[in-house]
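INFO  loader      accepted 1 record
INFO  loader      residues=313
INFO  predictor   begin
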Amino acid sequence: MNRARIWRLVQAVLLAALLVWIGRELVQQRDALRAAAGALRLRWPLIIAASALVLVTYAALIQSWRLLMAGWGTTLPYGAAVRVWTTANLGRYLPGKIWSVGALAVLAQRAGASAVGATGAALLGTLLNIGAGFGVVALAGPSVLDALGPNYRIAAWGAVALFVVGVLLLPRLLPPVVRAITRRREGVTEPVQPLPARLVWSAVAINALSWVGYGVAFHLLALGLLPAVSGATLGFIAIWTASYLVGYLVLIAPGGIGAREGAMVAAFAALGLVTATDATILAIASRLWLLVLEVLPGLISLALTPTARSRPS
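INFO  predictor   done
INFO  writer      dumping tokens
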């Protein structure tokens, strides 16, 4: 058995164990969850506003990705970029987050972007998004970090410091990596220029604001589901960002399923913003909500993407 098969087997076993744990937790709380679900009073204007804000956040992230591609001398029309980005987003629901990154590069190249621009922007955009997320958690959620444990705040600020150093170095460190990937994959030998620092920091700012947008949308969703929810918006921004990062960094979990929800419930419990049952309701509801907002645009993009037609002989 080769290494790839062994890794897939390990992923499957770990994912199965994670899903079994989630199922057991839900069974143990089923009566409380049933009672809480029956008490829900949906406020659709807030839920619709939350969903619209997420879509606006997507639009900002797509523009950030286009900026990075432009820094490497390639452009995509915004409509084509939306189709590529939302379609590639479906890859995050496969075990191993590299699928969505790889799909973004490949689909962008098929849409007309250069190999260097497509690959570099996909890699750098992912790294900047993760790093900006740690920065948002460190700034917006010190109380969340302190509640989770004595060393979480130190770890978060350490990650922020590494991120800042990385942003300063990546424009020069990434070109040889991109060049090696594109040459190995397709024999591309085009030169890779360092990105301007101003452009990289602009992408960082957009990604940071996007995390804030996600968190505000999550707060609106919570108020739309559970009107009695208390707590400042900053707490919801920190909880959403931290739990999303946990889900993203657990590579075995497609779309962070299970890991994100567990982290979210733990963060709510640590802060005492809602009861354990309401925290579980919010975790499950936000998963279903985000699933629709991630998958539906991707499926629409797939349906609208023109299929390649064979040339007549």
